[in-house]
Amino acid sequence: MNVLSMPQVGVWSAGPLGTIADVPGVTVGHCTLADGPIQTGVTVVRAHRDDPYRHKVPAATSVINGFGKSIGLVQVEELGVLETPIALTNTFGVAAVAQAQIRAAIASNPQIGRDWSTVNPLVFECNDGYLNDIQALAVEDKHYVAAFDAAASGFQRGSVGAGRGMSSFDLKGGIGSASRVVNVAGKDFTVGALVLANFGRLPMLTIDGVPLGRELHRRKQSATTATATKPEQGSIIMIVATDAPLDSRQLKRLSMRAAAGLARTGSVYGHGSGDIALAFSTAWTVPHEGDFVATPPLLSDARLDPLFHACAQSVEQAIIDALWSSTSVTGRDAHTRLSLLEAAPDLEQLLKRHTA
User: Which Pfam family is one of those matched by this entry (predicted)?
Assistant: First the structure.
């Protein structure tokens, strides 16, 4: 546990766990591969209380910048539901994880692909090739299964699971999570976010409005005589969950607000960055079989603003959490990414200087 307290952004309060697992029914699991040049893994977000294929949850995606190789987004966009857990891994691990999802769905429902339609695996990715030997194709079916089985409401963040080999702002990135609780129409609802942060260049880094990256970049320039900054590359996957009763169209609107939280940390969604958000609700389910779908009373669009604010704040907080929670990692060809707290041992003084 880091001694230095992480800044809390925005005005809304976090849930008791301060993670996406504050949304009822949501759990997260990791499988981490950390062996010399292999620095990668799988993270699974379980969004369903019951069988994912038989009891789908409403969902929607927003592609902010589409430099990515995810699988399953087209059907989510068209049908507005999730019928598998959400998986995160490295770019070259997508196929193996998708196959593992298909096998798991068939094992639970042998009718899939025969009497019933096929299943839509959903796998997001970021390129961890700086730290991880991505050409080794180290991610296998069993790693998805392990992450799925490990899912719980209490889970690690930082350099774990899919976040093991990720870089962010030229520092160690990875898994981050946060939550916010808002009152809408007299009822409390939770919005939670989980990010796989693998984006940004150091001079861009902004924490709670403080341009921290500029100072760290100046120090780096002095130490290395570097004069140029490479363009923003990498990716970020932003998963947003809520227990508010929303349909897929409203969830599409919610997912787009993840971009506001991302921008607050300094991103401009560069050409080579894959920035994708997915939002889902646990408030109701869509049965696979049946002629009609029973929906609860949905929130009016005019009442969505607090949820939009909570989404932006949760994503911003989750990105900070990824940096705060990560530990330094050395991987392929002795490449190293330092954690934020190791790269800036005087971080507390830097933040105070700008907020005094």
Answer: Peptidase_S58
For the chain, state the CA radius of gyration. 20
Place of tokens 């690690």: 156
Residues identified as active-site: 235, 273, 275
Q: What is the pLDDT of residue 1?
A: 39
Q: Model pTM?
A: 0.96
Instruction: Please work out, in degrees rounded to the nearest 5, the angle formed at the alpha carbon of residue 253 by the alpha carbons of 248 and 257.
Output: 135
Domains in the chain: ranges and CATH: 20-355 (3.60.70.12)
Which of 119, 90, 125, 116 shows the shortest CA–CA distance to 102? Answer: 119
**Side chain identity at 273, as an amino acid letter?**
S
For the chain, give the number of residues: 356
Alpha carbon separation from 106 to 71, 144, 192 (Å, rounded): 18, 15, 30
Instruction: Kindly tell me if the per-residue pLDDT of 217 is higher than 60.
Output: yes
**Cα atoms in the 13 Å half-sphere on the side-chain side of 165:** 35
